[in-house]
Amino acid sequence: MNFQGKRVLITGGSRGIGKACAQAFAERGAKVAINYLHNAEAAKETQATLKGGPHILVQADVSNPALIEGMIVETVKGLGGLDIVVNNAGISQVHPIDKVSYEEWQDTWQLILSVNLVAPANVIYWASQFMRANGGGRIVNVSSRGAFRGEPEMPAYGASKAGLNAMTQSLAQKLATENIYLGVVAPGFVETDMAASKLSGPQGDFIRNQSPLGRVAQPEEVAYAVIFLAAEESRFSTGTIIDVNGASYLRG
Ligand code: NAP
Q1: Which InterPro entries match (predicted)?
Q2: For position 52, which CATH number holds?
């Protein structure tokens, strides 16, 4: 897959899956805008690993609706355009219904939905304005196996990712005639900071053995599915959800 000259924005591109995506696109000739939240050091380190360029850093809290238009404008200015967006930034938080207070329950739903679902909706809103006026583009959203398998200890997370899947498919139908194509990558556990405490804890082996491969995914394996959906040749896969979970959960 060749991304020579393509301009790519990756939310949460500084660490984990987003970092692997940034590297995969840059290796194939793309110019990358790395969005991050607080950790400027990690963002700079990731930028320094990228081949080619120039690549830029775009700091913004994607859960703040007021910052999204500015993030897209900064990316277009910095890269000279925008061809591909990867909505990767996401958070998880345990909030069992039988243990948390009603206040914590409310706060967690608000927070998780704002980062994992409403933020991608807002990014797509502004990115698609630009893409529509400039011949089209590609949008790939990073969801989760939890959307299908259930997340009993973090239902807001499962719901946010199921919503992301449904939104992607609705907009794939809506935007295809504008030459804007969308897809989802739904990983199981991936070896990143987000999963680190679970993977190194008492549940670690149980989680790894959910897959017949006896391990979880590497971020690069998720990035490969992302670049597949972002490629010119994958146009007819619009609306697709690709599972990257090592056969740990097979949906019908
Ligand atoms: P990670 O290692 O925790 O990295 C998260 C990235 O998102 C960082 O770059 C972080 O920036 C950024 N970020 C977080 N909140 C943000 C916000 N409000 N605005 C802008 N950037 C923000 O995460 P990951 O494991 O790579 O996960 C990436 C995606 O994959 C998420 O959507 C996650 O739900 C999904 N996923 C992960 C797993 C897994 O096991 N890891 C499994 C299934 C799905 P800073 O560095 O500045 O904090």
Answers
A1: NAD(P)-bd_dom_sf, Sc_DH/Rdtase_CS, SDR, SDR_fam
A2: 3.40.50.720
